[in-house]
Amino acid sequence: MASSSELLKNQIVLITGCNRGIGKAILETFARNGAIVYASSRKEGIMDELAKEFSKKYSTTIIPLCFDVTDVNAIKQAFTMINKEHKRLDCLVNNAGIMQDALIGMATETNIQNTFNVNVFAVINLIQYATKLMKKQNSGSIINVSSIVGTYGNPGQIVYSASKGAVISLTKTAAKELASYNIRVNAITPGMIDTDMFRSIGEPRISERILKIGMGRLGTPEEVANTALFLASDMSAYVTGQIIGVDGSAII
Question: Which of 10, 149, 163, 166 is deepest in the core (most CB within 10 A)?
Fold first, then answer.
């Protein structure tokens, strides 16, 4: 585990999808580096114990939030709370996402709608509310978690790859539109990362996938989180509109 620092000391951050995998790693990395984090998840109470643990362990404040990212009214209430309590937002990490694989001809309307509701439409709405605060302070960093398949595509993932490709496009557009407000917008495209979601494909398929990774191993959630830390901090003060792959030279 990396040592603590003050790269994000007293920075106000909202991270969606914090309860496991990459989101949990980003939450812990940001807490370790001094951020005050609103940690969002969809299920009531799921973040409470983790928020207490990280708050105590890293001497900062983690505020658990429960809301569905597809609920625009809930998003509005979350940002109203952040504004009331801190009057600012320094970083938004759009990490919440779903993956429902389907071959061409098998993707249902429900699958398409659900995937885009979470992976694309929610990201746009969260950005719109976040920038209301960020524009007032003339600063901010927005980090969108996309995927390697959003860049290269992948058989059996026409809906998921399309949604993650949309995240890449909206990241580039938002970066251009918000640069004059000193708001930076970047995306991370993880490759094959060792999470519960990835492990669900089964060991035989995992071994097959690893053969396609130049570095010969799965990435860790912490390696994605470290990239997010760079993008959230002043180390990337002149970086915007970038799509940063964290994939170990994977071939898809």
Answer: 163
